[in-house]
Prior knowledge:
Blueprint: H1 7-14, H2 16-29, H3 48-59, E1 65-68, H4 71-79, H5 98-112, E2 115-118, H6 124-138
Parallel strand pairs: 1-2
Amino acid sequence: xxxxxxxxxxxxxxxxxxxRAGEAKALADVRVLRAGVVSLGGGTPTGKAGSLLLHDRxxxxxxxxxxxxxxPTLRSRLAATDVATRPSLTGADPLVEIEVVFARRDPLYLExxxxxxxxxxxxxxxxxxxxxxxxxASGE
Length: 140
């Protein structure tokens, strides 16, 4: 058992398949929510179980919002963190692999999202206002 391990520790120790299965289990555990916001890890919809749970949530009336940032924004944000503790998803340096991971994930995110908010160059308050507009419109 990993106890209070970080997501990076869990991914390194368990491997990606087990990690994604754990994400799906956590997502399944929030089924009891009637209203609210669930913020997912970037890889959650890339696993079959996570993808199916998200599809089920949409059928149940959930609104999926993709906060979309382009690779330069993602790189800048990632560089401001402790990159040394972040596991690579491709075998390359995490700052170098951003374009590859983005190219794999962006089409999937666009496909499953009900709403897309482009966040590049926008402040938190502006993005939050748009999220609130979407929540009100969807009855959340």
